[in-house]
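Researcher: Sequence recovery benchmark, item below. Answer with residues only.
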């Protein structure tokens, strides 16, 4: 499987062709005689909620440099989603939470970005169950809490899916 349409087979490197399989146009490796499926990459995010505010990070690395988003990232191959969400939160903000304290809020397929597809599992946790002062860590230029009103007032400052995500995180706690 690949997260973007595969021009080459990831197993043998042969240029792929296209076949209609299961009513979808799919990439196909003639050498391996099988489809090269495109599937979304799993990611996980953790929203720390303090009253009517959520902790967000300003992205320092592509994609979306300068955009504010809920801390999160890709799962490692051997990692449970809640563990990944807690790890990404710690790496990006310095804030520590027990993965067991994270409440699953949502699981959604994100809009394609340069052909890449990802699905995000979104967790929430009250600030009272988190430890450490937020400081910008890896991949983050800045971190701070945003209120619901601040996010609604300036939606262009955020990645497109973030305002709705902030809503659902706040509503979950
Ligand atoms: Zn192949």
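Model:
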């Amino acid at each position: 499987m690949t997260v973007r349409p595969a021009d080459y087979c990831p197993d043998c490197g042969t240029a792929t062709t296209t076949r209609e399989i299961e009513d979808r146009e799919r990439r196909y490796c003639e050498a391996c005689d099988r489809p090269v499926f495109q599937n979304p990459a799993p990611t996980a995010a953790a929203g720390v909620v303090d009253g009517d505010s959520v902790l967000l990070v300003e992205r320092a690395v592509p994609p979306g440099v300068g955009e504010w988003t809920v801390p999160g990232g890709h799962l490692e191959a051997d990692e449970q989603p809640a563990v990944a969400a807690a790890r990404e939160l710690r790496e990006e903000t310095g804030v520590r939470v027990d993965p067991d304290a994270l409440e699953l809020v949502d699981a959604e397929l994100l809009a394609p970005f340069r052909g890449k597809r990802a699905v995000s599992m979104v967790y929430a946790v009250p600030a009272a169950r988190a430890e450490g002062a937020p400081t910008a860590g890896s991949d983050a230029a800045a971190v701070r809490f945003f209120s619901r009103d601040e996010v609604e007032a300036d939606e262009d400052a955020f990645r497109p899916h973030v305002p709705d995500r902030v809503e659902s995180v706040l509503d979950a706690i």
